[in-house]
Amino acid sequence: MEMERPNLDTEMEFPQDFRCPISMELMKEPVIIATGVTYERKNIEKWFFSYKKKTCPATMQDIQNFGRDEMVSLLKTLGSSPFKVNSLKKLKEIIETGDEMKLDFILLGGLDVLFQLIVQILVDCSDFMAFRACEEALGVLQHLHISEQDDAKVIELLSKPECINSMAIILQRGSKEARVYTISILNNLANSNFNWNVIVNDQGIGMFKSMLELASDEISTKASSSALHVLIKILDSSKKSRSKAIEAGAMCTLIELLPDSNKSKCEKILHIIKLLCECADGRVAFIDHRLAIGAVAKKMFNVSETASKICVKIFSLICSFHPTEKVLEEMMSYGAVKKLVVLLHMSGPSSTKSKVLDMFKRHGNSWSRYPCFPGELKEYLGLDRHLRPENQI
């Protein structure tokens, strides 16, 4: 007992003020908050940022300006210190506490600070610290939850060519987390008047490969969905973008993703395949893939009405431009023709039904040779009398 007592005395000799009111342990990195109470930094940051509290733990007073004061300090640090990553991580935590912090960040000029960090990699993308700062800056931006209605300033800055090119670089060479941040930002911009041609013209094939890799991500479904949504917007913007996507291997990747996709993902993939099939190169890539016709045929009636309509559009494009014997035979053997017959029985006129009827008028003579082809459809199309050569393609 006598031997243990000196240790107890040593421990007790420190004043209570030296101990963190949260953990009651000796403070190694003390900080004073707005109420004048001192805490161990990691403990008070956990209180504010992890537990989302807005009071002083010791006095229970509201801390109205804590986040703002901390934000001002961090923004100053970003402008002068070479060690920016930790400051950016703390900024992200503050912004996550609520919309008022997001507004304060914008009012304090935080967007301009982030913009400078993001475009710095264009000066020297081999600078590791600048690259990491760019990644973290995109992480902060992603947590601002950009929307066209509320964030015109954000969209204005992100739409600048230098910022777009920086994001494209991160999309191709950044960490997995940074790439997810970036695709999320681009997804939020997808419904704005964003000039996608800038990113296509400057980055092209490499960028499409990165997006297709994210679209194939089986772990992060959010990143995968965002990548597909962004691809739709880009491919909708110009036919030039579709050619680059095809060159990047988009058709092959999408067809192989299709069988195991859920409803939402399946509709997006089919939409992109349809857009690519509107180009000659896309149609060639489609018919060259041995699983393409079977994969699309299987999705008719098995996903949604929207998906089935897109499948019809794809087959209509293929049948119009590439009605080879191999294509028509595969449509029959994979059950596409059988499902198209069902669509003919839909009540009332529709553009989908018109496309189906047109396919049968053009190619019914080839399909009617199969014993499973409905006899009443032969009669309806006048196939018993045989189509004249000039009516065939």
TrEMBL record:
Pfam families: ARM_PUB, U-box
Top-level lineage group: Eukaryota
PROSITE patterns: U_BOX
U-box domain segment(s): 13-89
GO biological processes: protein ubiquitination
InterPro entries in the record: ARM-like, ARM-type_fold, ARM_PUB, PUB22/23/24-like, RING-Ubox_PUB, Ubox_domain, Znf_RING/FYVE/PHD
Molecular function (Gene Ontology), one example: ubiquitin protein ligase activity
EC number(s) reported in the record: 2.3.2.27
Function, in words: Functions as an E3 ubiquitin ligase.
Name listed for the protein in its UniProt record: U-box domain-containing protein
Species in which this protein is naturally found: Artemisia annua (Sweet wormwood)
